[in-house]
Amino acid sequence: MIMHTKAGGSADVFVENYRPGAFDALGLGYEEMSKLNPKLIYCSISAFGSNGPRREQTAYDNVIQSFSGMMAMTGHGDGRPLKSGAPVVDYATGTTAAFAISTALFQREREGGKGQFIDVSMLDVAMILYSSHLTSYMWNGKHPEQKGNVFPFASIGCYEAADAPLMIAASNLAQQKALWIALEREDMIKTNNNQRLDGHAEEAATLASIIKTQTADYWETFLNEKRVPASRIRRMEEALADPQVAARNAIQTLNDPNSQVNGLKVPVSAFNLSSSPAQVNTAPQPIGAQSIELLKELGYSEQDIANMRQQGTTN
Fold this sequence. Notes:
InterPro entries: CoA-transferase_III_domain, CoA-Trfase_fam_III, CoA-Trfase_III_dom3_sf, CoA-Trfase_III_dom_1_sf. GO terms for molecular function: CoA-transferase activity. This protein is of the alpha/beta class and 315 residues long. The chain has 15 helices and 8 strands. Helix 4 packs across helix 6 and helix 5 (88-110) crosses helix 6.
């Protein structure tokens, strides 16, 4: 505990994802740590948050997808719930925490150097991810049901081309007009969204009959040239081989001959900074890789560290 309090006394940011209350019981909660370091940004990540009747429950991405209602509204309309192909709640929770920490650091600079407590809940993150569904339900009481690849407007959706499925996204009125003009079906153009909702069945049948006449690659090229967003359904390996991915440099290769994972390719960042581009320059570290370095920075002697290792308090 002394080691942790020393670290917290000099740190800018402290992040933990234990069950709420666990660190408080050890004397490492925000109240105690902030007394040692008033500038500390303390970020706590948990399944249900630090307050409420479920605060002490633990969960993972799939459990939160289940509990939040996300799985119930995802599927092909046969009543069987379906989780997302990727652990989106896990990923979004980490991103949310990073955004919150950045915000708190910025506020600290603006507001006299005082730190604060950040409470990140996976359940809250899930609700943000389906915020449009939630807002609609709270407004009209209509629960979101499984729709598969069907959207409210027929000009948005998945259609079977001659050889593969194709996703079309003629979302707004201008795009749906461009779509019908491109397909030489100006009679299907609508002037408002209510007409589009009412005409869903007819439009979907018309699109299905047209799209099946050509390959998905043909339609992807043709529609994008007409400024109508469209894409053939791809597997991940094909998407990764696309020149666009290489151009963005989001996937980089670790170059470290001394590492067991030399040559490992990883996605680095979903954004680019003009002055400080993201780079992979360090291999994934084993647990406690910097323990000795950090302990020395905190003032512990070689003998102190040796004693800690003997006691099993550090590696």
